[in-house]
Amino acid sequence: MSVDQEKKEGSTVLQVVVTGIGRALFAVFVPVVTFFVLWRGFLFLRDSGAPQVVITLVAIIWGVGGVVALFFVANWVIQRMPVEWRTRFVPFLFVGPAVIIMAWYLFLPTIRSLYLSFFDKFSKTFVGLENYKYVFTNRTMLIAFRNNVLLLVLGTGMCVVFGLVIAILADRSKFEKVVKSLVFLPMAISFVGAGVIWKFIYAYKAPGLEQIGLLNAVVTALGGEPVGWFTVRPWNTVFLIIILVWLQTGFAMVVLSAAIKGVPKELIEAARIDGAREMRIIFNIVIPFIKSTLIMVSTAILLITLKVFDIVYAMTNGLYGTEVLASQQYKQMFKFLHYGRGSTIAIVILLAVTPVIWYNLKQFAQREVF
Length: 370
What we know:
With 370 residues, this protein is an all-alpha fold. 78% of the residues lie in helices and 0% in strands.
């Protein structure tokens, strides 16, 4: 090998090394600069005294643009990796941010809440299970448990039953689309919005005054005395459950209607030929066929009833014996500033919903949804 060839090979190797180092440094430099810019944007949003409009615009640009920038930068870095590494890192590019966000906003707060539940009001003195004793023995908390059970049983049951009945009847009606649209319409309203609407329905004025509430207007028109619906215990909780049923029946109806349309028509026709009546077809064929969907809808609404807060807060603020677990948790944390009890109630709610979530995940796994 000649001296010129050795020099040429040496320069080639040096060029490859320098190029590799340069690409590596550049691959590190771009993400670092991106993260630095995003961090500066966060500091601006947190500490800036700029007008609210400016902060809002920066937050929108920073939030949406930041997510897009992070994705493209991460994808750009991965595309410059060897093929073997690239196939390993691509799944983390798409799943990783979601996992990190869930860990930051769900897992870490859960661990912190569990930790604070063993401390006093100021989160300084360890009190052991004292907060848990309060949750399961305090009179107001026992009322909250009772109301949550009523919501769970009556609320879930009525939503599913009404949703199933409407789905079956609408499926056999010429006005199916109109009926389903009207029943599903409340789903577009927030819980707080529904609370405001129903406040006008349940509104009460003293006898002799003009009644602006729909129910009391009807009662007085028929010669009766106006009723303070939310002061009538324990029926006031039932009146709140009616609002939940009004909101969630549309969800149950739509899902169950789709399941009913999946029942083989040949099976129903065969039952009719054998002389089976409609009620027997519904109970012996339709309901068993959509059993898994019924369970899914029930568990979904059950989760809502366990965590319900908006309706109670907007309608009664927990007065007159209408407290629920979520409203008590809110008051302990943000009104009474008792972080120990508030965290304890949050953990109790988490323990209540965990079996339902676990069951749903198990059902999804059996259906190979994921």
